[in-house]
Design goal:
This protein is 26% helix and 38% strand. Helix 2 runs antiparallel to helix 4 and helix 4 packs antiparallel against helix 5.
Amino acid sequence: MKFKRFGVAAAAIALAFTAGCGGSGGTATESSDLTKANFASEVSKAQVDAQTAHIEAKLDASGQKLSMSGDMDMTKNDVAFDLSLTGGPLGGGAQFILVDKVIYLKMAQLTKDKYVKIDIGSSNDPAAKMFEQMLGQLDPSKTFKAFDAVTQLQEKGTQEIDGVETTQYAVTVDTQRALKAQGMAGQVPQGQMPKTIVYDVWVDGDNLVRKLRMNVQGNAVDMTLSQWGEPVDISAPPAGQTTDMGSMMGQMQPQG
């Protein structure tokens, strides 16, 4: 039962997170011109054109409260990010770095002071495949397809966020179409999630998402995005600070 609840939470958070990440490049129109027909393409174009952003988020996954903070770079239609997570079952926290399709994961409770290196581009390891699926959910070249699942768009007024004037939209998404677009079809049975999801998105005059909020069956996301287009430094940790999955599992085996 706990596993099923986790699957629903992961799907809800994935849908929310990808709603804040871009699609293919282009020139944005004014946010006041956004409609159900062009919301996906125009928001995605603006975000990929900006390339970088800072992310702050509060997540509640099946009662597990997490905080996330970090930077993302979508240069050349690829994704790199450096995210730190705290709270919930993470104990001392975790750091999650993606560079050149290689993931570096550090968790205080599990990896100590090392980063586990997971090459999702070439490894056949099941863990690598799992993380490869996660990358697919974040890939900016695929994200705009999730927005094609928008069934209704309602403008709800304006609000200033961090000194920036934004327009708030209520966005209704067909859940199964969105999951399919993100490569998650079949991972969560239809009966475990509603047919549609409604989330609030605050978009500025350049069509950049400044805030996103949603709540699906008790799985809540409250995210802000800022510092669009500003320089970020996302790099792999030094080789001496990394280990592979096999070495880490070997160290965890009981001795004697």
